[in-house]
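Q: I'm a student working through a structural biology exercise. My instructor gave each of us a protein and asked us to get a predicted structure, then write a short paragraph describing it. Mine is Ubiquitin-like protease family profile domain-containing protein. I'm not confident about reading structure output yet, so if you can add a plain explanation after the tokens, that would really help. Here is the sequence I was given:
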Amino acid sequence: MSMNKASRGPSHVPDPAAGNKKRQKKAGNKTIDSRTKVQQGAQEQKLVFDFNNINRAMKPLAYYAHSSMRHGNQIEVPIPYTIMGFDMPVFLSFEDIYEFINLQEISANCILVYMRYLEGLCRISGQAEKFVFVSPSLISPMRTDTEDAARRERVDNLLSFLRDAPKERRYLVPHNRGRHWVLGVIDPWEDLVLYFDPLREKKRNDFTELMNMALTDWKITTGEGIRRRRDCKTKISNRPCPLQEGSVECGYFILGFMRDIVLNGIDALESKQFYTSEDLDLIRGE
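A: Happy to help. First, here is the predicted structure for Ubiquitin-like protease family profile domain-containing protein. I'll explain a few features afterward.
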């Protein structure tokens, strides 16, 4: 399964609801790579760290990447089924690390690794039942020959997480709408999706359609459609959040949004106008 840089979003979506063990085992053996090793080797030769200007917390990782990853070696990070739909590793390449350290566009792989870190925080703090993290590769637009089939697959991927949703649980869903990351927080029992966009734009047609389809199906399968009008559209609420000033920081802001929500509650984002460089350094250090 290949996944491109954050600016382009994921290029392939796995099926998290694979019914039989043979299929799950086969899927679990696949990897998420940013590019082939041949392409990596050619690109990585051009990337050189400026160690004099690297944040102190980033230097050990930079030294490791420089000495051990320049010719194709990767860092393997297991991602649990609670995020992907099945246990599956991602592999961080030299370019992933280089971009992350230099505050460039980050890959979806980096977002997955940080989601794994936040899920661990939730377990430690007793909030594992309160928040669920959904891999962006499951719901972000993908290249396909049949647009309707692709959308149906993305809806089914999201439904596989929502099906047994208890009340009070929120689903944190990073979404790449095409060259830009946003965050959705789903509350299925309230038929509500909170929408956090670090650019504060209102371009969310694909996201809106996806949420409406998934939650409409959820209401039908859980019986909530009997209590409510099935054709009632889900409320999607644009929420205040820190504003990015540059053109490539959206991925880091989404990491910060998820962190603030988990540690301080959803309302914590309303009081922040921006993230400082120290805030972003803290996130990257984690």
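A: Here are two points you could use in your paragraph. The beta strands are 75-79, 88-92, 131-133, 170-176, 181-187, 192-196, 235-238. The CA atoms of residues 44 and 95 lie 7 Å apart. It's a good idea to check both against the output above yourself.
Q: Great, thank you!
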